[in-house]
C-alpha cells in the first residue's frame, strides 16, 4: 500500500522519473486495512487499490511474484529472484513487515496460519471448512481482526490468547480493556489473557495449545497474530544501517544511511519507532517523493491515534491515552450495562486535552482528536466532551469545527487538511462526500474521517449562505418528509406519478425504493403492484429474504409466538416437502431456509391454506411482537402478555416504515420478552402497561425510554399509533427509531409532548391514518399468488417455469441442509 502511494505521489509531482516496481506477492497493491472484508464477500479485485492497467497507463513497469534478492550499492543495481538486473538512481524500499511468529514447539504443524496476505486468508478459509474450533494467538489490533475472520467463517468456537494482562495493551488501559473483553465475550469470543503458550500439541496437525501454567485448550486451527517484524533483511545484507531490534534507520527525509536509498512504511525505523498504521506510511511516501522532487518537507513522527470497529465494537485511542497524575487529570465515564467506557486526560490547569480512550461509543473521536492536535481550549466543563451537554451552553460540534485552523489534519491517511476540504466546497462546488473524495481523496483510506468530512462540508455550505437540505437524490430535490407530505396532498399512487409530478429525469436506485416505501406506508398498496416494483431492497422483489447460495427464506407470521399443534405440523410438512432447513428465530418465529425461487408461491399457498400469512421478514415493516407467557402460565405475570402481543401484532402487521420495526410485550418487570430493546416495547405493571420507545438491538444496542406509565390497553395503542405515524412521517430513509430519537431536538421530552400531550395537534389525524392502514391490510403472499402477472416473476427460467436454478448447491449439516460455502474461481 505504501509503495503504491509513493508512486501516486511521485507521478503527481514530476514526470521526470522512470519507475520500476518489484513485488513479492502475485498481485498488484491491495487494501490490507480492510483485509478481513475478504471473508464478507469482497474479492481481491474489490480490495485492489487501482485498476489492472493503472501501472501501464502511468508508464510504470511492474514485476509481480519477483522479489529483489540483492542490492549492490556500489554499482547501484538490484538483482531479482527471477534473474533480472536493473540499475537505479534512487531506490525506495517499501517491503513492509512480516508477521512475528514466536518460536513455540509445534509451530510448523498443519493447521497453523499467519494473517497477512490474501493467500493466507485463502488457506485459512479452506482449512476452516473442516474445523469446529479456532484460536488466535495475539490480542492486539491484528489479533482481534483475525478473530473476527474466524467468526465470519462460522466456527463453533473462537478463542483469543494474549500474553499480556489485557487486550490491546498498546492502545487502551486496563479498565477499557476489561470493558472491551466483556463486550467481545457477549459476542461469542472466549478471551484468555496472561497466557503464555508453551507448545502446540498434535501429531501432524494441531489439536491443542498447552500453556505455561499447565492448562490446555483444544483447538482445530490456530492463527498467529502476535505482532509484526520489519522486513529489513535486504537492507541488512547490503550494509545499510538497521536498528538493534530491527527496522531500516531513516532520517527526516526517509533516507537511509545510503542517501540514494529510501525506506518507507513498516520497514522504516524513525526516531526508534516502527509505525504500524497506514497513515504514517502514506506520510512517509509523501516525504520521500517530496525529497526527490526537491520540495522542503520532512517527517516529524506521527500521531498513532486510531479508531476502528472490532467485531462490531467501537474502539478508539488518541493523543496520550495513558498519562496519569501528577502529570495530568483524568475524567472517567463507565457504563457496564451498555458496555461503554470513556476516558479523557486533561492538563493540570484544565485548559487542554492530552488524550483519551473510547470503548463502545466513539462518535466524538474525530473532534476529540482535533482538540488534542490543535491545542483547542477546553470548555468550562471538560466532562461535556464525553458526557454531552447537561443543560446550558456547551461547545457544539459546529463551533468546534469553526475553531479548527485551516491546517488541521482531517484525513490523516491522505494528509488532507480542513482548508483543502473547505476549498473543495467553495472553489470546486463539491457538495457531496463522494465529490469531496474524488476531488481531494479525503476519506479514501481507512474511512474514519468521513463523518467529520461531511460535517465540514455542510458547515462550509451553510457559511456560504447555501440552504442545506437533506434531499433524496438528484431526481427529487426534496427531503423524505417533504416528499411524504406532497405525495399525500396530491394523492399520488405510483412511482411514475410521483416522478412526473414531483421529480425529474428517470429516477435511480436511491429514489425508486424510497418512493415505493412511501407509497406502501401511505396507501398500504401491494409493494409489488405495477409501477411500484422497485422496492426498498432486493428482498421485497420476491417477498422473501435472499440468502447465501441464491436461495430464499420463508418466515410466516406467528403473532405473539403462539402457535397451535396443527399449525406446527403444517410447517413441518411444508419444510419436509420442499427440503427446507428450519430454525426457531430470536423473534419467536420459525424460519424456513433454502427455498428455490420457483417454489416460493407453492410454499406460500400451502401455508396460507393452513391459516398462516406473510411475516414481512423481508420488508422495512413490523417484523415481530415478542412475548412471554404472562399471566396465562407464569406465576409472576401481571397481565395476559400473549393476548396483548397478538393484538399489537395484528394491528400493525404489514406497516411499512423507514426501517424495520420490532416490538415486545412482557408480563412483568422481569422482562422475559426483552421489551426495552425494541422500537416499541410494553411491560405490564400492577396498574396497566408501561410503554417504552426507541430501543435498538443489533450492532449499536440502545435501551428504549419510558414514554408513558401505567396506561390502559386502549390508551397504550393510541400512543403507539401516534408514535409510529410521527416516525413514519419524519424519519430519514433507513433510519431506525433509536437514531431518529437521538437526532431529535428536545429528545424524549419533545417526543412525549408530541405523542402524549398532542402538542402539535396531530393526534386525532394520526390515529385516523393508522386505522385506515389497519383496515386496508393485505397479506402480500396471498396477493402475489393470486395475481398472474406478479406470479410470473417467480419463474427462474421464463420458458421452463418448473426448472430450478442449477447453480444452487447444498451441504448436509446436523441432519439438515445448508447452503454450500462460496468458493472463488
TrEMBL record:
Molecular function per GO: 2 iron, 2 sulfur cluster binding; 4 iron, 4 sulfur cluster binding; flavin adenine dinucleotide binding; heme binding; metal ion binding; NADP binding; nitrite reductase activity
Signal among keywords: no
Domain Nitrite/Sulfite reductase ferredoxin-like residue range list: 547-609
Electron transport found in the keyword field: no
InterPro entries: BFD-like_2Fe2S-bd_dom, BFD-like_2Fe2S-bd_dom_sf, FAD/NAD-bd_sf, FAD/NAD-binding_dom, FAD/NAD-linked_Rdtase_dimer_sf, NasD-like, NiRdtase/SiRdtase_haem-b_fer, Nit/Sulf_reduc_fer-like_dom_sf
Binding site for [4Fe-4S] cluster: 628, 634, 668, 672
Gene Ontology BP annotations: energy derivation by oxidation of organic compounds; nitrate assimilation
Domain BFD-like [2Fe-2S]-binding: 409-457
Cofactor binding, per record: Binds 1 [4Fe-4S] cluster per subunit. Binds 1 siroheme per subunit.
Source superkingdom: Bacteria
Record domain NADH-rubredoxin oxidoreductase C-terminal: where: 305-376
Cofactor(s) this protein cannot do without: [4Fe-4S] cluster; [2Fe-2S] cluster; FAD; siroheme
Residue ranges constituting the FAD/NAD(P)-binding domain according to the UniProt record: 15-287
Entry keywords, A to Z: 2Fe-2S, 4Fe-4S, FAD, Flavoprotein, Heme, Iron, Iron-sulfur, Metal-binding, Nitrate assimilation, Oxidoreductase
Pathways involved: Nitrogen metabolism; nitrate reduction (assimilation)
Alphabetized Pfam families for the sequence: Fer2_BFD (PF04324), NIR_SIR (PF01077), NIR_SIR_ferr (PF03460), Pyr_redox_2 (PF07992), Rubredoxin_C (PF18267)
Residue sites binding siroheme per the record: 672
Start and end residues of each Nitrite/sulphite reductase 4Fe-4S domain: 619-755
Homology family: Belongs to the nitrite and sulfite reductase 4Fe-4S domain family.
Subunit structure: Homodimer which associates with NirD.
PANTHER family: NITRITE REDUCTASE (NADH) LARGE SUBUNIT (PTHR43809:SF1)
Protein name: Nitrite reductase large subunit
Taxonomic source organism: Pedobacter steynii
Amino acid at each position: 500500500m505504501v509503495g503504491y502511494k509513493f508512486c501516486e505521489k511521485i507521478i503527481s509531482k514530476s514526470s521526470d522519473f522512470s519507475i520500476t516496481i518489484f513485488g513479492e506477492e502475485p498481485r498488484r497493491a491491495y487494501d490490507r486495512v480492510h483485509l478481513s472484508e475478504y471473508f464478507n464477500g469482497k474479492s481481491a479485485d474489490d480490495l485492489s487499490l487501482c485498476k489492472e492497467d493503472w501501472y501501464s497507463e502511468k508508464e510504470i513497469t511492474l514485476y509481480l511474484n519477483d522479489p529483489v534478492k540483492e542490492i549492490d550499492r556500489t554499482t547501484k543495481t538490484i538483482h531479482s529472484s527471477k534473474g533480472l538486473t536493473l540499475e537505479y538512481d534512487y531506490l525506495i524500499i517499501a517491503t513492509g513487515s512480516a508477521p512475528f511468529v514466536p518460536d513455540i514447539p509445534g509451530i510448523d504443524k498443519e493447521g497453523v496460519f499467519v494473517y497477512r496476505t490474501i493467500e493466507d486468508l485463502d488457506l485459512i478459509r479452506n482449512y476452516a471448512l473442516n474445523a469446529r474450533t479456532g484460536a488466535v494467538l495475539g490480542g492486539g489490533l491484528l489479533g482481534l481482526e483475525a478473530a473476527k475472520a474466524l467468526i465470519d467463517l462460522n466456527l463453533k468456537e473462537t478463542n483469543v490468547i494474549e500474553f499480556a494482562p489485557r487486550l490491546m495493551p498498546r492502545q487502551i488501559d486496563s479498565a477499557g480493556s476489561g470493558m472491551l473483553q466483556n463486550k467481545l465475550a457477549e459476542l461469542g469470543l472466549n478471551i484468555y489473557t496472561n497466557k503464555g503458550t508453551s507448545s502446540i500439541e498434535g501429531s501432524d496437525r494441531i489439536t491443542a495449545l498447552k500453556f505455561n501454567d499447565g492448562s490446555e485448550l483444544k483447538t482445530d486451527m490456530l492463527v498467529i497474530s502476535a505482532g509484526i517484524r520489519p522486513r529489513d533483511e535486504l537492507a541488512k545484507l547490503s550494509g545499510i544501517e538497521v536498528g538493534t531490534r530491527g527496522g531500516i534507520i531513516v532520517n527526516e527525509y526517509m533516507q537511509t544511511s545510503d542517501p540514494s536509498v529510501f525506506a518507507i512504511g513498516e520497514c522504516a525505523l524513525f526516531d526508534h519507532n516502527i509505525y504500524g498504521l497506514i497513515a504514517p506510511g502514506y506520510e512517509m511516501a509523501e516525504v520521500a517523493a517530496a525529497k526527490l522532487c526537491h520540495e522542503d518537507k520532512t517527517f516529524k513522527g506521527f500521531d498513532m491515534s486510531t479508531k476502528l470497529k472490532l467485531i462490531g465494537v467501537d474502539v478508539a485511542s488518541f493523543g496520550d491515552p495513558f498519562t496519569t497524575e501528577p502529570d495530568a487529570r483524568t475524567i472517567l465515564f463507565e457504563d457496564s450495562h451498555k458496555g461503554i467506557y470513556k476516558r479523557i486526560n486533561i492538563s493540570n490547569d484544565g485548559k487542554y486535552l492530552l488524550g483519551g480512550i473510547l470503548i463502545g461509543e466513539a462518535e466524538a473521536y474525530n473532534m476529540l482528536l482535533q482538540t488534542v492536535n490543535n491545542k483547542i481550549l477546553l470548555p468550562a466543563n471538560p466532562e461535556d466532551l464525553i458526557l454531552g451537554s447537561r443543560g446550558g451552553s456547551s461547545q457544539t460540534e459546529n463551533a468546534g469545527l469553526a475553531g479548527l485552523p485551516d491546517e488541521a489534519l482531517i484525513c490523516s491517511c491522505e494528509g488532507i487538511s480542513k482548508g483543502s476540504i473547505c476549498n473543495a466546497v467553495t472553489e470546486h462546488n463539491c457538495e457531496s462526500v463522494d465529490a469531496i473524495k474524488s476531488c481531494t481523496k479525503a476519506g479514501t483510506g481507512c474511512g474514519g474521517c468521513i463523518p467529520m468530512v461531511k460535517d465540514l462540508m455542510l458547515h462550509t455550505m451553510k457559511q456560504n449562505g447555501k440552504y442545506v437540505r437533506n434531499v433524496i437524490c438528484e431526481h427529487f430535490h426534496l427531503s423524505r418528509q417533504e416528499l411524504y407530505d406532497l405525495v399525500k396532498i396530491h394523492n399520488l399512487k405510483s412511482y411514475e406519478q410521483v416522478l412526473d409530478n414531483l421529480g425529474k429525469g428517470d429516477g435511480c436506485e436511491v429514489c425508486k425504493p424510497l418512493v415505493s416505501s412511501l407509497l406502501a406506508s401511505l396507501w398500504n398498496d401491494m409493494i409489488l403492484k405495477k409501477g411500484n416494483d422497485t422496492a426498498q431492497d432486493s428482498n421485497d422483489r420476491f417477498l422473501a429474504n435472499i440468502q447465501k447460495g441464491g436461495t430464499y427464506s420463508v418466515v410466516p407470521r406467528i403473532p405473539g409466538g403462539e402457535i397451535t399443534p396443527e399449525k406446527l405440523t403444517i410447517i413441518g410438512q411444508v419444510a419436509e416437502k420442499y427440503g427446507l432447513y428450519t430454525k426457531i428465530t430470536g423473534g419467536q418465529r420459525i424460519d424456513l431456509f433454502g427455498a428455490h425461487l420457483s417454489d416460493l408461491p407453492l410454499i406460500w399457498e400451502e401455508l396460507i391454506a393452513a391459516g398462516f400469512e406473510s411475516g414481512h421478514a423481508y420488508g422495512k415493516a413490523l417484523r415481530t411482537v415478542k412475548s412471554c407467557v404472562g399471566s396465562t402460565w407464569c406465576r409472576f405475570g401481571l397481565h395476559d402478555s400473549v393476548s396483548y402481543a397478538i393484538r399489537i401484532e395484528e394491528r400493525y402487521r404489514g406497516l411499512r416504515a423507514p426501517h424495520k420495526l420490532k416490538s415486545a410485550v412482557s408480563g412483568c418487570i422481569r422482562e422475559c420478552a426483552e421489551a426495552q430493546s425494541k422500537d416499541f416495547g410494553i411491560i405490564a405493571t400492577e396498574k396497566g402497561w408501561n410503554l417504552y420507545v426507541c430501543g435498538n438491538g443489533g450492532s449499536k444496542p440502545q435501551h428504549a425510554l419510558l414514554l408513558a406509565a401505567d396506561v390502559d390497553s386502549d390508551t397504550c395503542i393510541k400512543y403507539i399509533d401516534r408514535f409510529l405515524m410521527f416516525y413514519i412521517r419524519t424519519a430519514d430513509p433507513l433510519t431506525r427509531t433509536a437514531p431518529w430519537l437521538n437526532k431529535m431536538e428536545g429528545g424524549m421530552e419533545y417526543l412525549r409532548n408530541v405523542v402524549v400531550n398532542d402538542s402539535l395537534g396531530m393526534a386525532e389525524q394520526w390515529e385516523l391514518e393508522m386505522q385506515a392502514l389497519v383496515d386496508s391490510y393485505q397479506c402480500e403472499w396471498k396477493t402475489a399468488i393470486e395475481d398472474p402477472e406478479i406470479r410470473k416473476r417467480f419463474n427462474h427460467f421464463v420458458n421452463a417455469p418448473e426448472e430450478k436454478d442449477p447453480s444452487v448447491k447444498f451441504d448436509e449439516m446436523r441432519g439438515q441442509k445448508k447452503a454450500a460455502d462460496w468458493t472463488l474461481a
